[in-house]
Structures are given as C-alpha cells and as structure tokens.
Amino acid sequence: MEPILVPKRKRRPGAPPVVSPAQPSIAAERAERLAGYAKALADPIRVQLVDVLAEHPGELCACELLPLFDLAQSTLSHHLKTLADAGILETRRQGLFAYYLVRPQALADLAAWLAHTAAAGARS
Predict the structure, then answer these.
(1) Cα separations (Å) of 72 from 9, 51, 87, 91?
(2) CA 14 to the chain's CA centroid
(3) 31-79 pLDDT, tens per residue?
C-alpha cells in the first residue's frame, strides 16, 4: 500500500504561531564562529597542520611545515590561510616568511561545545 500524502496546510490568518518545545542552547553568533572552525577543519591536511602546530612549542614557519606534506607551497599556504581566516591560527610575518601558531582558545571553544553537546546527547 502506498503512503497517502497530505498537503501541508497554511496557518489561518490570526492563528498563533506554532511554538517548538526545543530551542538552540547556543547563540547564533557563537554557532557561526564554531561552524567556521569546523568548516576550516573539514580537510585532513588542515587537521594535521593544526596537530603539528599544537604539539610544537612556539610558532613554526610555513617553510618548516612544507617538508611534512606532499603539497605544493601554494597549496600549503592556502590551507594555512584558511585556518588563520577561521581564527584557528595566528600569523606573524617577518620579511618574506610567515610564522604560524595555534590559538588555543579557538580549539577550547570548539572542544567545550562538542563536550557539552555529547553530554546532552548522552542524557537523551
């Protein structure tokens, strides 16, 4: 037997709006920031770059990162710029060289939200 499709009905004028019992626990501004972090980290090379930079004390030059990956210099620069634009990395230029450092607060913010969401999901 095929399911019967019922057309969606519009609310009649003056009817009260439907109120959802669920509401986001995160403000739109923070959600946008976290989505930017997640989007920037949605590439395995970028995850590895953040891992290398987070594990290394201090900053690293892009030229020191290049031998770790089978990438063209321009591709590596693109990945680093994407991470910096998202707010995950800090950049310092010195002459022709760019030095990168992980912003721990960006990762802590993302980790805190993931932990909160995982705990909320475990309770339901």
Answers:
(1) 55, 20, 23, 20
(2) 41
(3) 999 999 999 999 999 999 999 999 999 999 999 999 999 999 999 999 9
